[in-house]
Amino acid sequence: MGQEPSAGRRDVNTTSSQFRDALRRVFTRVGMRARAKVAELAQSLADACAREPLQTGQTYRRGQSSTEFADLPAYSAIVKYRDFGKLFKISDPFYRSHDARTASETWMQGRRYVNFASYDYLGLNHHPAVQAAAGAAIEHFGTSVSASRIVAGERPLHRELETALADFYGVESAVAFVSGHATNVSTIGTLMSGDDLIIHDELAHNSIIVGAKLSRATAHAFRHNDPAALERILAANRHLHKRALIVVEGLYSMDGDVADLPSLIALKERYDAWLMVDEAHALGVLGPRGRGSAEHFGIDPSRIDIWMGTLSKTLAACGGYIAGKQELIDILKYQAPGLVYSVGLSPPLAAAAAAALRAVESEPERIARLQRNGKLFLALAKDAGLDTATSEGHSIVSVIVGDLVHAGKLSQRLLDRGLNVLPIIYPAVPLKASRFRFFITSEHSPTQIHNAVNVMREELSAVERRKVA
Ligand code: PMP
To answer: What domain range includes position 29?
Structure first.
């Protein structure tokens, strides 16, 4: 039987409930202040990341602008991020150092992690034939070609790789650059000029946007993966420009969804434009033989004007390429600054990429495994109630977690639980759309995938619980 509380006990109870109320009030105030601080910081972060407005016609006195690097807006943004981290006790998730080769597992400072932060989609960075090819190329040609191919000459390895890439796409020719980023910048910057129109997906990679700026063409972004939005821009603008280029990613690196190639081809034909498809994340990933977007949709690859891709992801090397008509490749080989004024691909990288491409062709079971893993990850994530937005379950699945603080805290918690997966935060994505991108490879085991989804679900629920409390 319960007992009536004595007067003394009643006093104790009253005091403790007053104490609890007072504590709650303090926490609420602190919470409100913290939230105000978050909003304030988020705003200052946004301001710091924004570019200074261009002042046309302005003159500057000597000494008027500071020459300290620390006074540049680019540095203020970094300081703001650091303040943010300190305020919420979040350690910097970027530039983590790995002890050795990364695969489905990685080691950092002697601790093992399950790794979802590598683009090595088919596990070819470990392939014996890829390593042997790179080793043999060093033996024969050394580690560098030391200058631009146009002046210092090329090595047979360059042509072998480019011929293999052209054959892979079933197009006339291909050319390889030393960087994927430079490939987009240089190609778009060379082909397009002031009278022209470039329309790209709003989530297109930075290299596409930088290339568009370099070209001085008029650039528009269309709503992500929305051909109707693209058509509206074409209808309103195409007749105002000499030439037009539509640029998309085959498989989007931010959201993990696939560009609607059939609709894009119809539009580019209707509006007399070129279509450029960046296959950085689609090569080796989409289509039964890993040939990318065209194979995924059963489309003849020669209907796309410009195929672009990188050597750094599935092909386990470093660099980029363009594939298409011979005239296009000739223009780039003689005019693109990223080729003419930059060193040729180093021999081990050219050899590694060519060997990796052979492995994509001869070991389709890797592609099938990757495709199974991508589907499994997405299905489990959806079952667990994670917000995967438009991810389609290929090699990239994004899990949206909301604000910056969530993302920072989660990143540390996931690491503590043995999961290496990186957040994408503002300004790469909107302030409230921070996300974790899981890069899935053929080498992940179903158990690793199950565990990763469980850990993500548990940690997200813990953050939500703390927020409600
Ligand atoms: N295009 C896309 C879609 C990318 O995601 C990337 C890099 N992540 C690049 C181009 C640039 O490639 P790289 O890192 O090989 O220079």
So the answer is: 18-50+67-87
